[in-house]
Amino acid sequence: MNGQLRAYQLSIGIHAVLVLALLVFSSGLGAVARTRALDLSMLGGPPAPPPERPLHPRARFGPGAAAPLPPKAPEPVQPQAQRVNATAGMAPAASPPAAEPEQAPALSRDAIRERYSNENYSYIRDRIHRNLSYPQMARKMGWSGRVLVSFTVCTDGGVKDVRIVSGCGFEALDRSAVETIKSGSPYPPPPVETEFVMPITYRLE
């Protein structure tokens, strides 16, 4: 009898605990639901007013008022030219021109004559002496001597102005010297006409 009573009391206690637990759980869920509803109501805020309808320009500024000028259209913006690397599109720098060789100063006509005379005097003298012929009468008479002759060599190698500067005293020898100089041309042509004064010697051997 006592055992049944205890079992009955234990069963009643377990059921009471379960009922209490259910009550506590139910009350907790209600508090959470109320908290969420409160939060949602606070976040919502008052509804936004409907947008106003645009007024006619005259109604906006009152009757008789002039409508404002339309806003000035913005000026078109010119597209900026794309910056290009200055060195990329440029042609390679030209190399500096080569320095021209320095030219020798121009010689005067007298300097040209002197240079030609120094280079060709011996050749012309030897050529005249190779062509020299001893006149037969002078050889027979035993005449000899030295004739100083002046002549000009032209730019084509010919000669002109052949004259006796100093004769040997025998006309035959003087005339022979003039003819020998004339017959020996052409000589090397000079850049400018050049005058020579040259001795011609007649000697019997």
Explain what this protein looks like in three dimensions.
The chain is an alpha+beta fold. Among the domains are: 38 residues; 93 residues, Fusion Protein Consisting Of Minor Coat Protein, Glycine Rich Linker, Tola, And A His Tag, Chain: A, Domain 2. The chain has a three-stranded antiparallel β-sheet. A hairpin with a 5-residue loop joins strand 1 and strand 2.
Across the major sheet, the strand order is 2-1-3
Distance between the termini: 199 Å
The ordered string of helix (H) and strand (E) elements is HHHHHEEHE
Q: What is the CATH top level name of one domain?
A: Alpha Beta
Major sheet details: 3 strands, antiparallel
CATH hierarchy: architecture of one domain: 2-Layer Sandwich
Q: Please tell me what the overall shape is.
A: rod-shaped
Number of helices: 6
What is this structure's SSE topology?
Blueprint lengths: L1 H43 L12 H5 L24 H4 L19 H23 L4 H6 L3 E9 L5 E8 L4 H13 L10 E9 L3
Antiparallel strand pairs: 1-2, 1-3
In short:
The chain is an alpha+beta fold and 205 residues long. Among the domains are: 1-38; 110-202, Fusion Protein Consisting Of Minor Coat Protein, Glycine Rich Linker, Tola, And A His Tag, Chain: A, Domain 2 (2-Layer Sandwich), CATH 3.30.1150.10. It has helices at residues 2-44, 57-61, 86-89, 109-131, 136-141, 171-183, and strands at 145-153, 159-166, 194-202.
